[in-house]
Amino acid sequence: MDILTSFTFLIVAVGTMVLAFAGGMVGTISVMKGQSLIGDAIGHATFPGIVLAFMLIGVKETYTLAIGAVLFGILAFLAIQMITSHSKVTLDGALALVLSSFFGLGMALMSFVQGNPDFEGTQGLNDYIFGQAAYMLRSDVYLIITASFISLFILGAFYNQIRIYVFDPVFSRTAGINNNLMNFIILVVTILLISVGLKAVGAILIVNLLIAPAVIGQLWSSRFSIVLLIAGCSGSIAAFLGTYISTAGQDIATGPAIILTLSALMVLSLFLAPKGIMRRSIYKRRMGGDMP
């Protein structure tokens, strides 16, 4: 109970829960569109933007680093589009190329900054690789809440158009929906959430915060709105439990604790959910066929 009333715990818990809720909902759309790995590539690609922003400003200011991450996230997506449009490289190949190249650039810049006496206060930049939510400040939480609110507001404003676009792009074009605009909106909110969530879970683990809740939601329901809600709630629950475990354990990093908790919820859902292994096995034995 002492942990639950701790100011530090409450700051971290609120920030990670809001991030996980919005990330789960937005990530579900990306997963349903078959673009889940784009989030992984963008997550890794934002790291050099953070280091470059620090090099230009000279201080680890939350909003400046987030802008650097957003710009490089957009640059990474444009690079993926250019590679797939003007070469014979497949999407998977382009994702792997951009992910490794951008992240390698970030690590090279990080090594340069840490070994250069002209740059001071580099401690903490490594936290953006694996995340260090325990050191989140109020400004970090305010930024996460603002970005999450903007993302959810945009998602709500274009909910019907996005739903049609996700399930039937051909019909959405016939209905007068701009598919390019829908794709751009999904991209923007994804990059926004990845950029503000790096300090919490890191560039390497952020993709799990987008994909795992989506998998959980789809295992429990087939209705789009319910899947989104379950994804958001499961992300928030994992964030709270992971933050609590990290705070109580002291030696456990918050980001990995959240991801492991979320993975545990996904495994449980894989067995116990209506579309899970056990329910499907029972249905198959009783009805002599697969579930609809």
UniProtKB/TrEMBL annotation:
Pfam families: ABC-3
Keywords: Cell membrane, Membrane, Transmembrane, Transmembrane helix, Transport
Lipid bilayer topology: Multi-pass membrane protein
Gene3D superfamilies: ABC transporter involved in vitamin B12 uptake, BtuC
Residue spans crossing the bilayer: 6-29, 41-59, 65-83, 95-113, 141-159, 180-197, 227-245, 257-277
Subcellular location as annotated: Cell membrane
Family: Belongs to the ABC-3 integral membrane protein family.
Protein name in the entry: Zinc ABC transporter permease
UniProt lineage: Bacteria, Bacillati, Bacillota, Bacilli, Bacillales
